[in-house]
Input
Amino acid sequence: MDYPVRVYGPNVYELVLTKYLAGLGLLLLSWTVAAALWPATLAVASTSAAGLLVGATGAAALAIVLAGAGLRQNRAALDLGFALLAAVAVAWTAAAIVESEAIALVAGGLMVAAFAIAWILRHAAVQARYKPRFFSPRQFETLIQVADTMIDGDGREAIDSVDIAVRVDHLLAETSSPALPQIKLVLILVEWVLPLLVVRPLPFSTLGSNVRRSAVEGVIGTGGFLRPVARTLKVLSCVGYYGNPETMRGLGYVPFDERPRAIGVDQSPVHYPDPFPGPPGS
Amino acid sequence: MPSGERLSPYTRAVPVFVKRSTDKLQALAGALDGGGFSDEVERIVDDGDPAATRIAIKANIMGAVASGEAEATYTDPQLVESLIGRLREYGFTQMSVVDSRLDAGESMTEVAARLGYHADGYELVDLSEETDPFDYGGVLGRHPVSPTWRDADIRISFAKNKSQWECFYSGAMANVLGCLPEPDKRRWYRGRGHAASECVRTALAALPVHFGLVDAWTSRDGRGRPGRGGKMRQTGAVLASANVIALDWVMGEKMGVDPALNPVMQEALHRWGRIELIRRGDLMPWEPWERPGPTTVALAGLIGGRGAWTIQ
Output
């Protein structure tokens, strides 16, 4: 059988996670319905708080089912599903211990295990897809969205935003600088704080391109402590985009070594004598 | 440096030829002819002297150790020696068959001798035994290299047609993991920041492989750990191409696996971009063929193997 060549196709972890989430979502949904029908037996207690917990479990199930329909396309549902599943898993377990409910405790334990498996698979999926060397998988995903926002070529970009992020990640991995932790901090701020500027209490990477652009424009327009954030985003994107040989070729830039007038030019470094050969005062 | 080095062997549209035959040496000869081996050799040597040209053939020898020397898990010595015979006809005299150690176990030369390699008219070189520092760049950075592999003018990867539970199948690219000399491959070439696929891609970029062959005279399928389970299959073919990415792609198709899911292939496509496939010869899938599923590959990727680990 002939398979079409796909450069950015899914990896095995994404395939497995997709199937896993689809099954997990349906299981959770079934559990929600069962717990709603027989609260005395399956829910933690027959109270409104326990009812809310069952409702939250249903919401987690729906988000996970949606995420299982397409990981890359339904990124926001995936984030929401993970957050809700973690919360309800802890809540079921804690409430079951307090109320001494064996069935609810087993359910809570299984939800914790299900969340752990999903988290491991998701982490492996992002790791396998991008193999970041400097950034964490989450920070790397943020950087992709930053590059997508900052390099706005309306489809005429020479390289993909993933390539931009990969280049930045690899460059930073080979760099030694005290500023490196601050670059990571900037991406954490961008992911979790920046969306608040445009009144979107969601992670930056789950926002649509227009909202992301508004958020970044907000940072650029605002002075004060956000100015270094804007500068960092610009530098990261430009280094990743314009530092790529493919972009250089696309723009018509010819490296010095390849220019006709560079042929035969002695480019060996000139070594000057050290004007201060000994330590001061010696 | 041979003139052929200027063109990346991984971006050229060249045929992948699958030759099926009732005689294994005829299968090899057919694959070499169909895969453009002579043209490739002429292109690389150009006006140079064949007698001064060094050739390194990376056969899959230590894959046998990783799989407990199960049948059909290493490159057939007869095929490798037949290839050497053909190279001798072109006037080449400096030929080495190479692989590196796995863990602190036996030397590659001892294993090769036991498997049937005679070192008659060629050298058997254990790439772990004599190394120099070398800047591979990428995830490997400064790391040892064997001068035999580094200084070869023509590098050939001669892989075995077999399933592999961490990457669906082990092809001519994964075979190059054995060119990296550290014996403890699990420690050096597996894990975050230096995944096996990244190490293979870096090794392929730093020291390009000019021609790839896959010994599918006999093959090994299976869903689980290397050499455990699965069966030896009489597939009776040899695959050849001057582009190892395209070669591995067709190898995956023959096994009924989507090659794009293979982590080594994914890494290569990310690095070198889309390839153009020119499929030639017998393209029917192997039947029957047991292959690992995505869940097995994902689990194997997470937990990995023990001792004598490799993906080749």
